[in-house]
């Protein structure tokens, strides 16, 4: 049961950090880009997807980041709290309810496309770096 509680603590702490980062970065981007489109949420989801791609590779290595608590802290806690699929869904619904169909569809396509690109790019780059340095197991 000790492993369960240490993993739970890792997720709790990571979630607090991820939520704070999401609030700060999303607000920063949205403040600079304007309120017409949910740029802040898109930026958070893309950067979070990129980070998850990197962490997924690191989780397969002999790195300290492959340890259960580290994965729970980084992937489940920070990234799970940092990325904002629920915000994405709510903002897309708001655009659709306001008959802003192009923006709603643009948000769906951009979010899914760029987040898939982000996770692939993070996975690819981390795989190349760790394969080149002999860090993959």
From TrEMBL:
Transmembrane intervals: 6-25, 37-61, 73-96, 108-127
Reaction(s) catalysed by this chain's protein: fluoride(in) = fluoride(out)
Membrane topology of this protein: Multi-pass membrane protein
Main location: membrane
UniProt keyword terms in alphabetical order: Cell inner membrane, Cell membrane, Ion channel, Ion transport, Membrane, Metal-binding, Sodium, Transmembrane, Transmembrane helix, Transport
Keyword Cell membrane: yes
Keyword Ligase: no
Binding site for Na(+): 80, 83
Family: Belongs to the fluoride channel Fluc/FEX (TC 1.A.43) family.
Protein known as: Fluoride-specific ion channel FluC
Natural source organism: Geoalkalibacter halelectricus
């Amino acid at each position: 049961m000790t492993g369960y509680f240490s993993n739970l603590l890792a997720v709790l702490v990571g979630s607090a950090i991820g939520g704070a980062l999401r609030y700060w970065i999303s607000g920063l981007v949205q403040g600079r880009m304007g309120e017409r489109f949910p740029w802040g949420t898109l930026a958070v989801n893309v950067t979070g997807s990129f980070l998850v791609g990197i962490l997924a590779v690191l989780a397969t290595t002999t790195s300290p980041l492959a340890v259960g608590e580290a994965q729970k802290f980084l992937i489940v806690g920070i990234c799970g709290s940092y990325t904002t699929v629920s915000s994405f869904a709510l903002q897309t619904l708001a655009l659709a309810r306001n008959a802003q169909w192009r923006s709603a569809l643009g948000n769906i396509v951009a979010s899914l496309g760029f987040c898939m690109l982000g996770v692939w790019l993070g996975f690819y780059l981390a795989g190349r770096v760790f394969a080149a340095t002999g860090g993959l197991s």
